[in-house]
Amino acid sequence: MVSQITRGIKISVITSFEGTYFKNYKIHFAFSYEITIENHSKDSVQLNSRHWEIFDSLNDIEVVDGEGVIGKKPVLKPGESHTYSSGCLLSSPHGAMRGFFNMINFTTTKNFRVIVPTFRLSAPYALN
């Protein structure tokens, strides 16, 4: 697990290798990740959007931007948390992801970024 705190918002990530499959005569490596967002600040906040950089050891970096996370824009009061699961496909057994969440602080009405630390995506059988 990797974790990081930005402005009182703690992000923790757990990853898992889900297996391989063939599509269009090419092998794909499936990974899942579970992200927990914890509000350790004194203010209520809302996650509005996300930005991902997906690194694949055999491809260029893929950038993904979007609204919310898995169709939700969670509001977190002080002491609350939100956990969700998602996944990605790589063309190699090794890669990584990093990014940030754009959030709003309801007390100050200011937008801010919460860093998602870099997390590795590795098939266990491919490691030495």
UniProtKB/TrEMBL annotation:
Coiled coil: none annotated. This is Co2+/Mg2+ efflux protein ApaG. It comes from the Bacteria. InterPro entries: ApaG_domain (IPR007474), ApaG_sf (IPR036767). Pfam families: DUF525. It comes from Flavobacterium chungnamense. Residues 3-128 form the ApaG domain.
